[in-house]
Design a protein that fits this description.
The complex is a heterodimer of chains A (98) and B (660).
Chain A: H1 4-21, H2 26-50, H3 55-85
Chain B: H1 2-18, H2 20-52, E1 57-67, E2 70-78, H3 80-103, H4 110-129, H5 133-151, H6 158-189, H7 194-208, H8 211-227, H9 236-239, H10 245-254, H11 259-266, H12 268-271, H13 275-297, H14 302-322, H15 326-353, H16 371-385, H17 391-405, H18 409-438, H19 445-450, H20 456-481, H21 509-532, H22 534-542, H23 544-554, H24 559-591, H25 593-610, H26 615-633, H27 639-659
Helix pairs in contact in B: 1-2, 1-4, 2-3, 2-4, 3-4, 3-10, 3-15, 3-20, 4-5, 5-6, 6-8, 8-11, 8-13, 10-14, 10-15, 13-14, 13-18, 14-15, 14-17, 14-18, 15-16, 15-17, 15-20, 16-18, 16-20, 17-18, 17-20, 17-21, 18-21, 21-22, 22-23, 24-25, 25-27
The chains are: A mainly alpha (98), B mainly alpha (660).
Chain lengths: 98, 660
């Protein structure tokens, strides 16, 4: 049992590593976050079936909703960022530095 | 009332010192004299209550340093010893305050002077009322500080600067010994409180023997050597005469220099169990008495003669302590305070009269001009040399008698050196009187024309002190050293086998007469030699051997020269190259303050490198931190692993930085 963990755990890991090692652009960052959220969803659903508890599936629906909203905001920011800076390359995103 | 004795001089010092501008010179003099005078009146009451009625007072005001075993409180102990000292300190201080208002009347810095005098009195009272070693040490250092400030009162004079620094530095050697003694007693007995400490000594000695107590008592004695100007560290006392004369009278004759003797008497329960230390004290005291008396014989500075006399009398007190006769030592301390303050204040009166001239060779013939001062000086000198039935007679002769009755090598040594010193004491006292008052004058005509006897503010203290010098010994003798007197209560401990006061009554009559014969002989010889045979004295001093001897004594046994050429350069070099350059500025600073600050700076720089501003770096650290946070809530996780993890992360960062 719990075979879905064999998929969801690496999937989450890829998302995590994607955030950490991503040096390309902001789109990849958004993709990685989506990937992590999907891995999470898979867990919710898997455990919900294993435990015979429908709240997990309900939560998966919430997460999908949040993820959709989040990618909408993220993409919106991306567009604005491109208009302002003329690039979305991660190496130039360093204004966080105090 | 008991605490106000200590507090009043401090209040006077603060008023005169900080608000001297508002109260003015007259006001400062009035306030400080009034405060100390009031304290003196209270002290007399304490003598009745504590000394005569036998009810010691023990006041613990507040905790000061309470850390594990260290139990130093702000505590005040008024037993017979303290109250005896209180009367001396506050009484003479009040008289000197009064005298100073007259003596310093032309000085522009009177408020500062009065403030220092009162501050000194306060610290001295802290020293004598202390109920533990730490508070005593506070007073001990405080009086040293005030001594420095007062010697250096006329701070534009290079000699005063030098003398003040010398007093401070020489005393530091003694203070170091005293501090080591305190540390040693604390390390051994885990207390600095006198009562607790003294109670432990007999049992400790019964179990462990007296070797360690002897070592610690010798450390305490080193402290006394410094403060009480015993042989070896006495060189600062004559130089301290650079200060104003009231200072010499109060600090360098009557009170502060007796602090070392007082400390040894206070620690009588310790010294009683350290017989070897007592022998050392006896030998040193006797040698001090002899050395100072012979040096005083050929000094030409009026105040230095009296300073060496002080040094010599302190030697008497020290060897009386060494012979376990603490009450006799204390008695001599009190009597000495009367007549030595009288002598110094009279000398001040002379100096005041002859336009601040201190060299006896330039005085003379002042008998007609200063009759009052002459009488006072004569009373002081007679009391000092032990003229029958004056104050010095009662204590000095008893000291010499107990030294004889000790029937030991040290006792006999002290007895004979003491007797010879008595001869020299009388000799220099009368040499001083003859030079100053009798000889044909050598002063300038203008000086002589303007010479005037002491005004009331200076004359009154002399009168009071002369009463002390005349009658003090006779009146207090039976209470203080009378066999069977219960005046001391538990303040002084003398082992039964050391009680020889009664034996001293039964020594041969011829021995009892010796000090008197020597004193009178010395006095007579001085007058005869300088009056009738001055050319002979001159010829003797110019002969080859006489010349060497004269130089030896006028150069103060060459102590200063030996110190300056043999000890000071070595100490100075060691102090600069080793302790200052190699240790303080080298090892300690490199690994201490600067080492720590450098390490912190480096670490901070490393951590700062982590904050690059790139999103992927921030994200990486966020995730790492998340995992570290998860480790905390993982069951069975050892926190030590976390430290290893974090340190290894720092190493990784360091490597990344060097690669970059």
């Amino acid at each position: 049992m719990h075979e879905w963990l064999l998929i969801s755990a690496p999937l989450f890991g890829f998302g995590l590593v994607g955030i950490g090692l991503n040096r390309k652009n902001v789109v990849v960052l958004l993709l990685s976050i989506e990937l992590m959220l999907l891995a999470l969803n898979l867990n919710w659903i898997g455990f919900s079936i294993a435990m015979d508890d429908s709240y997990g599936q309900l939560f998966a629906l919430f997460v999908i909703t949040v993820a959709a909203a989040e990618s909408a905001i993220g993409l919106g920011l991306l567009v604005v960022y491109y208009r302002v800076r003329g690039t979305i390359a991660m190496d130039w995103v360093n204004v966080l530095k105090g | 009332m008991y605490l106000s004795i200590v507090a009043l001089p401090l209040m006077g010092a603060i008023t005169a010192g900080l608000f001297g501008r508002f109260v003015g010179p007259k006001g400062a003099g009035f306030i400080t004299t009034g405060c100390v005078g009031l304290a003196a009146l209270f002290s007399i009451t304490t003598v009745y209550e504590v000394g005569l009625s036998g009810s010691p007072v023990y006041v613990t005001v507040a905790p000061w340093i309470h850390s594990e075993w260290l139990d130093a409180s702000w505590g005040f102990l008024f037993d017979s010893l303290t109250t005896s000292m209180l009367v001396i300190v506050t009484g003479i201080s009040a008289l000197v305050h009064c005298y100073a208002t007259g003596y310093m009347s032309h000085d522009p810095h009177i408020p500062r002077f009065m403030a220092y005098l009162s501050l000194f009195t306060f610290f001295m009272l802290m020293l004598i009322t202390a109920e533990n070693f730490v508070q005593m040490f506070l007073g001990w250092e405080g009086v040293g500080l005030c001594s420095y400030l007062l010697i250096n009162f006329w701070y534009t004079r290079i000699q005063a600067n030098k003398a003040a620094m010398k007093a401070m530095i020489v005393n530091r050697v003694g203070d170091f010994g005293f501090a080591l003694g305190i540390f040693g007693f604390y390390a051994t007995f885990h207390t600095v409180d006198f009562a607790t400490l003294f109670a432990q000594i007999p049992a400790y000695v019964a179990v462990h023997g007296d070797a360690w107590i002897t070592v610690l008592c010798l450390f305490l004695f080193v402290g006394a050597v410094g403060k009480s100007a015993q042989l070896g560290l006495h060189t600062w006392l004559p130089d301290a005469m650079e200060g104003p004369t009231p200072v010499s009278a109060l600090i360098h004759a009557a009170t502060m220099v007796t602090a070392g003797i007082f400390m040894m008497i206070r620690c009588s329960p310790l010294f009683e169990y350290a017989p070897t230390a007592l022998i050392v004290v006896t030998i040193f005291g006797a040698m001090t008495a002899f050395m100072a008396a012979t040096t005083g014989m050929l000094q030409n500075d009026l105040k230095k003669v009296i300073a060496y006399s002080t040094c010599s009398q302190l030697g008497y007190m020290a060897f009386a302590v060494g012979l376990s006769q603490y009450s006799v030592s204390m008695f001599h301390l009190m009597n000495h305070a009367y007549f030595k303050a009288l002598l110094f204040l009279s000398a001040g009166s002379v100096i005041h009269a002859v336009a601040d001239e201190q060299d006896m060779r330039r005085m003379g013939g002042l008998l007609r001009l200063l009759p009052y001062t002459y009488v006072m000086m004569l009373i002081g000198s007679m009391a000092l040399m032990g003229f029958p039935f004056l104050t010095g007679f009662y204590s000095k002769d008893v000291i010499l008698e107990v030294a004889y009755a000790h029937y030991s090598v040290a006792g006999t040594f002290a007895h004979w050196l003491g007797v010879i010193s008595a001869f020299f004491t009388a000799f220099y006292s009368f040499r001083l009187i003859y030079f100053t008052f009798f000889r044909d004058t050598n002063a300038y005509r203008t000086t002589i024309e303007h010479a005037h006897d002491a005004p009331f503010a200076m004359g009154f203290p002399l009168f009071v002190l002369s009463l002390g010098a005349l009658f003090g010994g006779y009146l207090t003798r039976d209470a203080i050293i009378g066999p069977g007197s219960n005046y001391w209560g538990n303040a002084i401990v003398t082992l039964p086998e050391h009680a020889i006061l009664l034996d001293a009554e039964w020594i041969p009559l011829s021995i009892k007469w010796i000090p008197l014969v020597f004193s009178l002989g010395g006095a007579t010889l001085a007058v005869i030699l300088y009056h009738g045979f001055a050319p002979v004295v001159h010829a003797i001093q110019l002969s080859p051997l006489g010349r060497e001897l004269t130089l030896f004594f006028t150069k103060k046994w060459l102590f200063d020269r030996v110190y300056n050429e043999c000890i000071v350069p070595v100490a100075l070099r060691f102090g600069y190259t080793t302790t200052y350059k190699a240790l303080d500025k080298g090892l300690i600073e490199h690994f201490g303050p600067f080492g720590v600050s450098n390490a912190v700076e480096k670490l901070v720089e490393n951590v700062r490198q982590l904050h690059s501003g790139y999103i992927y770096h921030a994200a990486f650290w966020m995730i790492t931190a998340l995992f570290i946070g998860l480790l905390f809530i993982t069951p069975g996780f050892d926190l030590r692993l976390l430290w290893i993890l974090m340190i290894s992360i720092l190493f990784v960062v360091e490597r990344e930085k060097t690669n970059a």
